[in-house]
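User: Is it possible to get a 3D structure for a protein together with its bound compound? The compound here is 2-deoxy-2-amino glucitol-6-phosphate. I've pasted both below.
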Amino acid sequence: MCGIVGYTGPREAYPIIIKGLKRLEYRGYDSTGVALQNGGLKVYKKKGKVAELEDAIVGKDLHAHVGIGHTRWATHGEPSDRNAHPHQSASGKLAMIHNGIIENYNQLKQELINKGYTFHSDTDTEVLLNFIEEIRNNNQCDLEEAVRVALKRVTGAYVILLLDEDKPDTIIAARKGSPLVIGVGKGEHFLGSDASPMLEYTKEVVYVNDYELAIITPDQLILKNLGNEKITPYVQKLDLELAAIEKGGYDHFMLKEIFEQPQTIYDCLRGRLDAEAGTITMSGIQQYAEQIMNANRIVMIACGTSWHAGLVAEYIFEELCRINVEVEYASEFRYRNPVISKGDVIIAISQSGETADTLVAIENAKSKGAIILGVVNVVGSSIARTSHAGAYTHAGPEIGVASTKAFTAQLAVLTMIALKIGYIKGSISQDRYMHLLKELNEVPEKVAWTLKHSDNIKKLAEKYKDAHDFLYLGRGYNFPVALEGALKLKEISYIHAEGYPAAEMKHGPIALVDENLPVVFVATKDTYHEKVVSNMQEIKARKGKVISVITEGDELSASLSNDVMIVPEADEIVAPMLSVVPLQLLAYYIGVAKQLDVDKPRNLAKSVTVE
Ligand code: AGP
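Assistant: Yes, that's possible. Here is the predicted structure of the complex:
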């Protein structure tokens, strides 16, 4: 996710753009830049937040009535000055900003290199921009036509804003798969990833649709499809307030990010998983496949929610790859004197990529000869850069302190790695491999189904919000999900909650059970289901309140539960990406029912960069 802003009209463009970018920083903050039409194109850009760019260009000639601005969430190319947007074309006459991923950029880049183009960044954006310029020069057509022709060749998602030095009052924009809003003023137009940059100037907006292209001057907004047919812009009156827009209309970032999961899991799989062809493309993993297959052991190192993802991965890797897996709290691993041998493979799991304990733990392991693979969300973060290789989770910025979409994206990546290695190693059959690829491919729509059937969870939150303790129980792949559900509740509602292997209850904790104790079972239909049902009966017999996450149609578990949360049928290996979703919502709605700050819980930080 990146933030884009544009303006053309009689006002000074720069102040509008820079303020708009600040409002869009929730969409990404790796680097920022602006391009201004000021007697020729002026481009200012740098790594870091908007305020850092602002400070760096104080005193420059920023006068302009037309400009575009960008705040980046890195996907291709680390956060750096050279990879910051806007990018300029080879001629220097075009400047462009982009939000999205051009999936076939490598092929386009090769075509351009063969024609003598050179590149100054690692981004897919610079490739698309030069592809557009090449088409315009080659076909002697206007820029609008060149954009249309280029976008027909492109696969992936994009919003682009384009400035042409030879047409200083015009902005060309196009979108597919990423959001673009155009604000309609009197003799002026605004553009943004959402309406927040324009809200104080106009509430008349046009939401651009996929495969549409806009040619915008101060007095004119022309909308066309890629077939060059004009479209009448549908102007709507906005009734959202600024705060609501940043959250996409949700009350909190946490809820927005929970509901983003169908898209973020899809984004994580996109370009990697091809369930039809039976392939998983992960170049970072491919280059270390041999070492992973022959590893003495795989050690998952992480903290918090990421540690829970590692626990799920332990079950998956041992099942599919038949390799010994250990899961370590980074903070414990780094301070004891662990035995690390050259053949060890470490998988470091981290949303922020900056967790101090995880970073130091892998630095220690790396110094002792272990191979470090990173499963990280923030591109170019310290853990990503310390790793030998890895795979990004592409979940976009996670603003809520409680990790939700990053967790399910971590599970998606870890499952793909295990499937890839198991397939290469031959430790899973072709049939099971193809079945699991199909199951993984269906997860985004099954998460969407789960979210659609979650209306009752708000009522459950009201019913149980005053409990002082919760138990979360699960077995097998759902045991780490029980731990994760307990952590979500603790950190969002401040209610004490413990996750346990369901079978462990009889070794002591069942003494806690009485009519005041809600016990949440993660009880989706899997290998362990029959045993979990008898654990439910044990709790019922002691008057505990049973709240269960169950598979749709599981009447037996429903009959033993006081309340249920439903997920669709799925293979147990991918089930944690579904069964965690109701638990995320339960924690969120209980926190809201208790009127707590669910996006910024007390005592917590989004990234624990201290020891
Ligand atoms: C999870 O909701 C918490 N915010 C916390 O446990 C977090 O998972 C942990 O601090 C690890 O962070 P990381 O994934 O950025 O390394």
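Residues 454-611 form a domain with the Rossmann fold fold (CATH 3.40.50.10490). Residues 405-425 form the longest helix (21 residues).
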